[in-house]
From TrEMBL:
Signal peptide: none annotated. It holds the Pfam family CSRNP_N. Residues 20-193 form the Cysteine/serine-rich nuclear protein N-terminal domain. This is CSRN2 protein. GO terms for cellular component: nucleus. One of its GO terms (biological process) is apoptotic process. GO terms for molecular function: DNA-binding transcription factor activity, RNA polymerase II-specific; sequence-specific DNA binding. The gene is Csrnp2_0. It is found in: Nucleus. PANTHER family: CYSTEINE_SERINE-RICH NUCLEAR PROTEIN 2 (PTHR13580:SF6), TGF-BETA INDUCED APOPTOSIS PROTEIN (PTHR13580). It comes from Alaudala cheleensis (Asian short-toed lark).
């Protein structure tokens, strides 16, 4: 009798190729929120944390290329402002001999006194340079006021200071063995640190 061909092994069966799964984006949606006093973050110094309203007031859609261009323009503006502030500080230090001699001229200088010609924006690659910079307390307060926040909660300053202090103390003071009666970790219901 003729021999039947052997059944194909399940190990050798070729699986049908599936198309590679890829995610592709065609557009970017940007949501705009009004600025509010934060109460959700802890700035490294001072009070008046920045936050945003619970609901956006505007949304815009951009193509990927439009959004990339928009980000580049925005980053260049931030860089220009940062360089302008740095140049202003340098001029003030120069006029006051590193802060040792009071100078009325230095006190009268403003950002408007630093022209675009004084800035060396072309030497800095925006993509390599740009990152979020921490803002001093005065600038955060000015941003809040410019955004229409009439009353800045002064209690937040003390709360933030207490939070920063509590974050400096981590764990407990137990040595070698845990003493549950005096261990701050044990009393907080966590394992001894």
């Amino acid at each position: 009798p003729p021999c039947a061909p052997p059944a194909p092994s399940i190990l050798c069966r070729s699986r049908p190729r599936r198309a590679a799964k890829r995610v592709r984006f065609a557009q970017v949606t940007v949501y705009y929120f009004a600025r509010r006093q934060g109460f959700t973050c802890v700035p490294s110094a001072g009070g008046s944390s920045l936050g945003m309203a619970p609901r956006h007031h505007r949304a815009r859609r951009y193509s990927l290329s439009q959004f990339a261009h928009l980000r580049q323009v925005s980053h260049r503006q931030h860089l220009r402002q940062h360089l302008r502030r740095e140049k202003l500080r340098a001029r003030r230090r120069e006029l006051t001999q590193n802060g040792t001699v009071p100078s009325a001229e230095a006190a009268g200088l403003t950002l408007a006194d630093v022209s675009d010609d004084d800035l060396d924006v072309g030497q800095v690659e925006v993509g390599d340079y740009f990152y979020l910079q921490p803002l001093p307390t005065k600038r955060r307060r000015a941003l809040l006021r410019a955004s229409g926040v009439r009353r800045i909660d002064a209690e937040e300053r003390q709360e933030l200071r207490a939070l920063r202090l509590s974050r400096e103390q981590c764990g407990c003071v137990c040595r070698l063995t845990c003493e549950p009666r005096t261990c701050a970790c044990s009393q907080a219901g966590i394992q001894c640190q």
